[in-house]
């Protein structure tokens, strides 16, 4: 059996593992260096909990000859039978290592270990990762060597844990920061903030299609529902829009009560103005259908017939940091945004869902209906607005959510 010498791995980790620029590269290079140091690894897993609104944690699984797969653990997975019967539960909850020599003993009630043994694994050890803040994460190490891990190899693994854990903690903090920024300010804004665009007044101009929407009848609806129900309705309503916006190249910048502001950048990378506007219109049609199909069960009634207004415009916006004191907001402002907000108000007056400015409508042929000129507060010239030909006030129905027959 190959002698174990992991000092080179330790030195590389302590120096910051600078040859690995991405987390998958880090995992791959770490495992390869450990193999070169005498560890007969066949499968390695790193499991970390994280601060994220949609997942309890992430996992990074390396398989010899197959690279790394990255996955997420949904909220509630920590209560599943698979997790509770796995060695990882002991590591996370008690901070203890778990060793299973898969050829020498039964694997107990763990379907995972039974599957690994059937695939050829001979030895398994799960080791805790003790973070500097006291939190405990987990790692798992497997081999298919006929004799399993030797005592020297297990000792070598243990000796690597402090330096490996520090580097994993650094990667975890980076991913957590990036993930939270993505969730709260959007991917592009988050990238700009992490890149150093953090000073107040630090802005840049952007040519973009602008999306500004608002839920109809929200004020009377919020007056009759409980606060918890209002939050549920808003989340359901935004779920009808956000996926379509993101899928079509947009970025959600802000939720303003029942309002939503998004931009679709127009750059050489994103496509010309006509291409971007076609994607925006595709997202608008998808959202219109989703909101029309939306319903919400409240006490003994079902609320449906939800409607919203959406203004589409194209123009130049200022994109960056605005605020006062120690509180900043990364958003976009400018006359183009103001015009979109004014057009959104006209959707309610006309009982229309989607309205487009002259600038937006000129870039995409959607069989627009010219709805005429409207004076716009704050603008010297009237603005001509356009509606979709397949949408009339009659097809829009009532403006406020209605309740269907009460359940018996």
Automatic annotation (TrEMBL):
An individual GO BP term: cAMP biosynthetic process
InterPro entries: A/G_cyclase, Adenylyl/Guanylyl_Cyclase_3/4, Nucleotide_cyclase
One GO MF term: adenylate cyclase activity
A family per Pfam: Guanylate_cyc
Guanylate cyclase domain mapped to chain residues: 209-344
Classification via SMART domains: CYCc (SM00044)
SUPFAM superfamilies according to UniProt: Nucleotide cyclase
PANTHER family assigned: ADENYLATE CYCLASE, TERMINAL-DIFFERENTIATION SPECIFIC-RELATED, BLR2264 PROTEIN
Name used for this protein in its record: Adenylate/guanylate cyclase domain-containing protein
């Amino acid at each position: 059996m190959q002698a174990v010498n992991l000092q080179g791995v330790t030195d590389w980790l302590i120096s910051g593992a600078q040859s690995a620029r991405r987390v998958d590269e880090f995992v791959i290079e770490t495992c390869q260096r450990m193999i070169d140091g005498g560890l007969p690894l066949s499968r390695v897993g790193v499991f970390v909990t994280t601060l994220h609104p949609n997942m309890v944690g992430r996992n990074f699984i390396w398989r010899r000859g197959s690279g790394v797969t990255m996955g997420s653990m949904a909220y509630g997975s920590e209560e599943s039978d698979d997790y509770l019967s796995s060695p990882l539960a002991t590591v996370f909850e008690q901070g203890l290592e778990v060793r299973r020599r898969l050829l020498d003993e039964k694997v107990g009630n763990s379907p995972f270990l039974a599957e690994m043994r059937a695939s050829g694994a001979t030895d398994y050890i799960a080791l805790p990762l003790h973070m500097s803040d006291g939190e405990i994460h987990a790692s798992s190490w497997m081999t298919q060597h006929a004799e399993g891990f030797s005592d020297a190899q297990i000792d070598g693994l243990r000796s690597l844990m402090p330096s490996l854990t520090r580097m994993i903690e650094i990667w975890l903090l980076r991913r957590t920061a990036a993930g939270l920024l993505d969730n709260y300010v959007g991917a592009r804004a988050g990238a700009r903030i992490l890149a150093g665009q953090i000073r107040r007044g630090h802005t840049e101009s952007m040519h973009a299609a602008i999306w500004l929407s608002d839920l109809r009848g929200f004020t009377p609806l919020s007056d009759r529902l409980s606060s918890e129900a209002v939050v549920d309705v808003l989340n359901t309503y935004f779920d009808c829009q956000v996926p379509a916006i993101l899928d079509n190249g947009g970025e959600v910048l802000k939720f303003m009560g029942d309002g939503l502001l998004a931009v679709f950048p127009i750059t050489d990378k994103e496509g010309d103005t006509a291409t971007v506007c076609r994607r925006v219109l595709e997202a608008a049609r998808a959202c219109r259908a989703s909101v029309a199909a939306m319903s919400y069960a409240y006490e003994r009634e079902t609320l449906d017939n939800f409607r919203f207004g959406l203004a589409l415009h194209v123009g130049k916006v200022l994109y960056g940091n605005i605020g006062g004191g120690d509180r900043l907001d990364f958003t976009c402002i400018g006359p183009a945004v103001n015009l979109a907000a004014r057009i959104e108000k006209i959707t309610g007056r006309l009982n229309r869902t989607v309205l487009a400015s002259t600038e937006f409508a000129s870039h995409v042929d959607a069989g627009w209906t010219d709805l005429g000129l409207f004076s716009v507060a704050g603008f010297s010239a009237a603005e001509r607005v356009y509606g979709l030909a397949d949408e009339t006030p009659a097809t829009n129905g009532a403006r406020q959510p209605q309740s269907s027959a009460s359940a018996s």
